Amino acid sequence: MLPARWRARIRLTPWWAVVVVIWALSRIVTTTLVLILARVQGANPWTGASPGYFDFANIWDARWYNIVAVSGYPAVLPVTSAGHIGENAWAFMPGYPAVVRLIMVVTGAPWAPAAVVVSLAFSLGATLLFYRLMLRVQGRATARFAVVLFCVAPLTPILQFGYAESMYLFFLTLALLLLLERRYVLLFPVIAVMALTRPSGLAFALALGFHIVHRWLTRRSDPFPASERLTAASVTAFSALSGFAWPIIAWIATGSATAYTDTELAWRSSYIGYQELVPFTAWFQGGAWWLGTPLGIIVVALLVIGFAALLFAPAVRRLGVDLRFWLAAYGIYLFAVFFPQSSTFRLLMPMFPLLGAIAQPKRLSYRIAVVVLCILGQWGWLLVCWGVDGKDWTPP
């Protein structure tokens, strides 16, 4: 435990100030790691050798967001020599690049610094909201340590890169907080922006569906009046429609009904070739590609069983039913549509409520060890997924 005088000072400090200090200290640590790696980074498809921070923070898919912000989306889909749809900007939703573009227009700043500033601002907002979310299900001390883990988790460098994750986590955290507070009407605009920032409408609709069923089944002990039923059902339908909004927009703009899914499938073609999108098959395809058969299939099956068991672990149960509904819904969504590769780690970030379970043990040695492991995890992720080594095939 912390010394008594430290605990007294923390209790007297406004909650938001404590969170801001945690966030700022974590950004110093992460920025230091990024600069160390940038110093030894060789020339690559995006930068020269030893790039500055802003340039290094805008490699990989950040360039696609830059293209969207400056040039928009192609009306004609690119076609490979084999006749398949190639990689293009339709895979990247407009929410984040639109905000960065606004900052560029207002301030005159170029893409790279504007993107980093926007990501940092949303990461601070998401951290503040995460503390409020954890307070709904945890005590103050545990909620504060959960915030520490949120700020130092292995993938947090991406929260200050030119990626949409910071903005998405901000709106997702806000949506989860509103769900726990049962402020259904306010979810409409939040879901609309969230679903145009990262693919999320269908997963959140499923979580809302679980929520409605649970409230209906427990209505005798927890009243579920007709007005709330109607509003909750309406926002669930809206979230589901929001999940289809971007594919429909891509269809209208390009004339191809499968423009969005074909574009997404182009990214997995280097692993398994061009195939149709068949829900709930990609993880088994990935398991077979990475580990062969039958080992890959067995490992995927064990992962599914392990994840289901995790949702019923005592520490996770203490997070409450609604956060567990989100974890289950998002897990089902990923299992249905995503092909596992190095981006899997980033795609798991929306499961951040699990940090509230990891934060529960109060022993100081445990907490120090977890923080150290997280920071080491940041360095490992930067080395494996962000730094570019020749013709790199481990995108973040």
Give the topology string: H per helix, E per strand. HHHHHHHHHHHHHHHHHHH
Largest sheet: none
> How many strands appear in the DSSP assignment?
0
The CA-CA distance between the termini, in Å, is: 36 Å
Count of helical segments?
19
Structural domain count = 1
State the helical fraction: 55-70%
State the low-pLDDT regions, or none.
Answer: none
Summarize this, please?
This protein has 396 residues and is an all-alpha fold. It has one domain.
Describe this protein's structure:
The mean pLDDT is 96. The chain has 396 residues and is an all-alpha fold. It has one domain. Helix content is 67%, strand content 0%.
Task: Please give a handful of descriptors for the protein shown.
396 residues, mainly alpha, single chain, 19 helices, globular, 0% strand, 67% helix
